[in-house]
Every structure is written in C-alpha cells, then in structure tokens.
Design goal:
This protein has 464 residues and is an alpha/beta fold. It has 15 helices and 14 strands. Strand 11 and strand 12 form a beta hairpin. It is elongated and about 80 Å long. The termini are far apart.
Length: 464
C-alpha cells in the first residue's frame, strides 16, 4: 500500500515537471480583435507587434485582428463609422485608444487660460468622454470584450525645436482616467500607455532634454516607440516572458523539468549530450528598426523572450550547442548551469523561424495600414457628402480631388494619400484576399518544429 502511494506521488511529481504550460492568453482561439484608434493605430505598429507576439507564443490559439484606426479620427468619429467600419468585422475583442484628436491640441499653449478657453478645453474632454461611452456601449451590445488603452503621450516636455502645445499631455491623462472609469463599468481591461510612456519619456530626458520616445512632431512614435507601446500592452495583459524552459541534470543524465515544451530521448555518452526538443512556442523576434527601444528599456526583450536551456552538473570547461547539426552557441559550464537564453541567439533555428513569421506579419500590416485603412479614411472623410455612392470609384476620386484643392494646410500629405487611393482602390478585393492569406500563412509558419539538440565540448572553430 505504501509502495503504491509512493509510486503515485512519484508519477504526479513527474507529470507536474513535464506538464507545465504557459498561462492562458487574453485572446482566445477564434477571437476577432479590432484595434480602434486614430493615426497612431492607422499607421503605427504597436498592434502588429502585439499580434506577432501572440502568434509566436500561442501558435495553437489562432485568432484574427483588424486595424480599425483612421488618421485624424476621434471618439465621435469612431462612433460615426461604427456600423460600416467596425461592426462588420464582428469583433469579439476591441482595444480602444483615442483622445489625441479629441482634446483640441491647438487650444493649448504655455499662456494662462482665460475662463472661456478653460471652458472650451473642458467641453472637448467632456465630449470625448461621452463619445467613448457611446462607442463602448455599442461594442458591448455586440458582445465584445473591451481593452481600454490610455492615450499615448503628447511630448510637451522635450526641448526639441518643434512647436509645442503645452498642457495637451495633461489633457490626455484626463482622457486616460475617463477610460479607466469606462473599463470599470464594462468589466474591461486597462492598458496604460499614458502613464508608462510619460514616466519613460521623463527618464530618457534626464540624459537628453531634447530627446523623445515619440516623433519629431511630439505625437507619432516611430518603430521603436511602437515596440515600447506593444511591450506595455503585453505587460499589462499578463503576457509571459517565458517561451520555454528545459532543465537538465548532466550528472544524472536526466531531464529534471520542462515548461511549454517536450525534451526527451536524452543520452550523455562520451562527453556528448543529445536530446530531442519540441517547443510549443517560438521566441519573439526583434522587429527591424526597433533597437533604440532596448536603449530606453534594456529589459524589454528579456521580458518578452526567454527560451531557457539550463544544464547543471557539467564538468569545468566550454561546451557548444548544435541544433539540427548547426553550431548555435558556445558557453562555459557556469553559463549553462545558470541558463542560456536560446530565444535571442541569431543562429537559433527557432528564432530564424520566428523571423519568417515576422516577415509575413509585416506584409500583412503593410497592406492594412497603407491601403485598406487609406480606403476607409477617405470614405470616413467624405461621410457627410450628400448623394455620394461610396462604391463609385470615379465619383469618390472626384470628391477627393475637390476636397484636397480646398485645403489650406497639409496639402502634401492629403495629396499623397489621394494618390494611394487612386492607384490602389481598384485592387481592394485583392488586398483583402492577400491579407487573409498572409494571416493563415503566419499561423501555419508559427508551428514549432522538432529539433535535434547536441551539446559537446567546444572545438577550436566553434566561435567563428
């Protein structure tokens, strides 16, 4: 009887060691995520990086996402386009980040407010809050789970030689508080871009008062800024840093524990250790053009990507890991005992596979931000035009041309956007199909492959 109990306890302990998995993600298999926002969502990459993380970290939990940002939009604008631009996607999850165009940036300066100006500023925020409440209710009525993102920052503290609207960031902080109140009402989740980015921006400016984590216009982040935003999104949503973890006892020739992977068939003969490795996730690859994010947040990649191989009990010396017969890394016995992060090694076939997924994701995002959202932007911008058939390409182009001719500012930008519409709108169906195919290909490519692992004493040419 005692023997049976001991066997059962041993079996349970072994099962626990080899069955550890990652926590459940906020996105479920079959979800449809709509990222609702303004230009920072329309053209920016934070949601694309978030999507890449979940595709590589949870490749068996396929869900889709749509960019529902429109340049220049507001909460009231999102309400106005809800029925034709957001609802048809039938989102099961929506993230909402709005406010930058709601607060009336042109009203802000370093001059004291008159009572009338203070009232106008308050009215703008009140209208924003009311429209956000309407938008949230529409989404909830359609059975959508909500993620409220406090607005990304307006950099009012950088000493850069660019026009400043001092006070805008404080107004965005109030918008963020309104979002928190809506989240509490609707059982939503809060992602705090505003607080986290304000703190990081202040830290960066301690070293260089003219620096900024957003762009030279004080509003639009570059790729590094968007990766920082994705990082804060993932952290606030409980995304795990772990990809996998394997711990091996070399002295006992045994796998002691695994997390989110299988490691079996281990042998340690003649100083060479061999085993089979099958991960359930891929590492998160660093997107191109985002290295500056690591200067701002050195912990960022470590917090998003830890594929740890721990090998204890090795004799003193250096050892080289080969994966599928290719040299990946050489480290000494102490480093292996502490754990080597395979997920950040350039030669790792797992990271290389994740890089292929990233390329597909970049193409998918580019189609959406450059073309599909351009088409939606023009329809939205002409929504008040009377007797206009939005499906009539020639009529739309005529109105766009007339509207641009009447502009007194930003003509260059809008003319460029009109050119994109003119050249690419006829291919809309093709772009939609390509986006869907790229999404499917991403998820298929993200399935981890079995790997053959070999650890042997280092040789002279291993470090070349």
């Amino acid at each position: 009887m005692i023997f049976r109990r001991l066997c059962l306890l041993s079996l349970l302990a072994t099962s626990w060691l080899f069955a550890q998995t990652l926590p459940e993600p906020i996105f479920r298999a079959g979800d449809r995520w709509a990222a609702v926002g303004d230009s920072i969502t329309h053209g920016g990459g934070y949601h694309s990086y978030v999507y890449l993380y979940y595709v590589t970290r949870y490749p068996e939990q396929k869900f889709t996402m749509t960019n529902a940002g429109i340049s220049g939009d507001s909460a009231a604008g999102a309400v106005g386009r809800y029925d034709w631009d957001i609802k048809p996607f039938a989102p099961t999850v929506a993230s909402i980040m709005l406010g930058m165009n709601d607060v009336g940036r042109g009203q802000y300066s370093d001059k004291p407010d008159t009572p009338e100006m203070a009232e106008r500023k308050k009215g703008a925020i009140d209208r924003h809050a009311a429209s956000m409440a309407t938008l949230a209710q529409k989404l909830r009525d359609d059975q959508c789970r909500l993620i409220f993102i406090t607005p990304s920052i307006f950099d009012q503290t950088s000493t850069m030689d660019k026009p400043n609207n001092f006070g805008v960031n404080d107004a965005l902080g109030i918008c963020g508080q309104k979002a928190r109140e809506l989240a509490a009402k609707h059982d939503g989740r809060v992602v705090d871009f505003h607080g986290a980015m304000s703190a990081l921006n202040a830290k960066v400016q301690q070293g260089d008062p003219a620096a900024t984590i957003v762009g030279g216009d004080r509003v639009h982040p570059g790729a590094a800024g968007h990766l920082v935003m994705a990082y804060y999104f993932l952290k606030d949503c409980g995304a795990p840093k772990a990809v996998t973890r394997v711990e091996i006892d070399a002295a006992a020739s045994a796998v002691r524990s695994t997390l989110n992977c299988q490691a079996d068939g281990l042998s340690y003969i003649g100083g060479e250790m061999k085993f089979n490795y099958l991960a359930k996730s891929l590492p998160f690859p660093m997107p191109p053009g985002t290295q500056q994010a690591l200067a701002w947040l050195p912990e960022l990649w470590n917090d998003l990507c830890e594929e740890l191989l721990v090998i204890k009990g090795l004799p003193v010396g250096e050892f080289t890991l080969l994966i599928d017969d290719a040299v990946v890394v050489t480290a000494d016995h102490a480093a292996w005992a502490a754990g080597v992060n395979l997920g950040q090694l350039e030669k790792s076939p797992m990271l290389q596979q994740a890089g292929e997924v990233m390329k597909l994701n970049d193409k998918r995002h580019s189609i959406s931000s450059r073309y599909l959202r351009n088409f939606a932007m023009w329809r939205h911008g002409l929504s008040r035009e009377k007797d206009l058939d939005f499906n009539d390409y020639d009529a739309m182009l005529e109105r766009i041309t007339a509207k641009n001719a009447a502009r007194t500012s930003n003509q260059g930008y809008h003319n460029a956007m009109a050119k994109v519409y003119a050249e690419h709108k006829p291919r809309e169906a093709e772009y939609i199909k390509q986006s869907q195919e790229l999404t499917d290909e991403m998820w298929a490519k993200a399935k981890p492959l079995p790997r053959r692992m070999l650890l042997r004493p280092a040789q002279a040419d291993d470090k070349k």
